[in-house]
Each structure stands twice: as C-alpha cells, then as structure tokens.
Amino acid sequence: MSGSTDCPYEILGVSDLADEAEIKSAFEAKLASCKQAYELLIDAKKRRAFDRQKTDKKEKEYQLKIEQLEKECEKGKSPDEVKIENDGELEKMRKQLGCVGGAGHFTGLLTYGENKMEIKFEAWESLKVAIAGWAIQFKPAVKWNGGDGKYYYLWFENKEGGAKFKATARGINWKTGEEAYRRELQSEKDGTRQLIKYEVDPYTVTYVLFNITFL
C-alpha cells in the first residue's frame, strides 16, 4: 500500500487484498458519510449548531482546567507558581479560552496578574461581563445583532485603570476553517474604557480571535 494521501486504498479504508464486495461496501459507506457531512455543512443553521456543540465541549474542558488553576491561586499562589501534576496543557489552558462562556474566567484570571491571553468569540454573538473589578464587552459586526456591518468592537475596563492593550486579531474563515484576516491593533481610549475595532466582513467568518497583551 502506498503512503500517499492520494492512495485509493487509503481513501476507501481497505487493504490491497480487498475483494470487489469489500470495495463496493467501503465506497457506499464513504459516500454516505460524505453526503451526510455535505448536508450538514451546506445548511448554515445546522452548521452553526454543530460548531457550537464542538465549542461547548472544548469550553467545558477549558473551564475545568482554569477552575483548577483558580483553586490553587486561592491558596495564595500566583498563576506562574501553579503547577498541576501530569498536566502539561495547563499553561496553554490558563491563557486560552473558547467562546463567550469562558469570559468570566477570563476576567477572573486578570485579577491574578495575567497580562497575555487569547480569547475567542462566535462571530454573531455579543457579550458584556463585569467581575472582580474588570469589565469586558464584545459587539459583533453583524447588523441583525446590533452591529454596523463593518467592525467587531472589543472593550476592556479596569476600575483601577491600566486596561490599555494591544491585540493580534484573526478570523476563522467559514469556508476553509482556517485563520485569516490578521490585523495588529492598539487600543484607544473610549470614555473610561479601552477599545479596539477589528474590520472584517462578518459574513466571511464564523469566529474571531484576539491574542491580547495588556500594557
């Protein structure tokens, strides 16, 4: 069997000893699964529901990891001192969030001194959270949810000041699933808050991500 991804045996998932009946059965199964995947992805509503389900599962994993971190921090340790045995993913998890459900943890981590992290939003959802002296607001670009059709808005506010930040923004292209539309942004003062505006066509992305550094 060939190691190439173009190998017909690998495509159908059969061995080079497969008989005609096995090949036909594998083809029909592959065709059925491809048809099912196509019908799901071509339907915008079904696709959003599927993406949300995947995100919710990942978000639960992130929240569990971060809750472990927060428990350790409550014991008087700083985040950099916290090490959970046999958990090599913790350092990544404590700096990274999934969709909007984790924003409470995000603001909570800020109170423990984190100044670099990643946050991810669904492209059509809005969010406003205030906790532990921090406030975050995300406004989508889609017009049907109050947007202007052009910009995604992200605000931070700290009751003691010091919310100025920079961000690398990207969107997840809805067709390819790949990151695109990268922008380097610097926050500007907007009343008592700091604001960045990320310009991207809202109908080309399913998620927007921000790698944030507080200055």
User: Looking across the biggest beta sheet, what order are the strands in?
Assistant: 2-3-4-8-7
Number of strands: 9
Number of helices: 5
End-to-end C-alpha gap: 55 Å
Q: Summarize the amount of helix as a percent range.
A: 25-40%
Shape: elongated
**CATH domain class of the domain at 90-214:** Mainly Beta
Structural class: alpha+beta
Helix/strand order, N-terminal first: HHHHHEEEEEEEEE
Q: Point out poorly predicted stretches.
A: 84-88, 93-102
**Mind summarizing the main beta sheet?**
5 strands, antiparallel
CATH architecture of the domain at 90-214: Sandwich
The name of the CATH topology of the domain at 90-214 is Immunoglobulin-like
The average pLDDT score comes to 76
Strand residue percentage: 25-35%
Radius of gyration (CA) equals: 22 Å
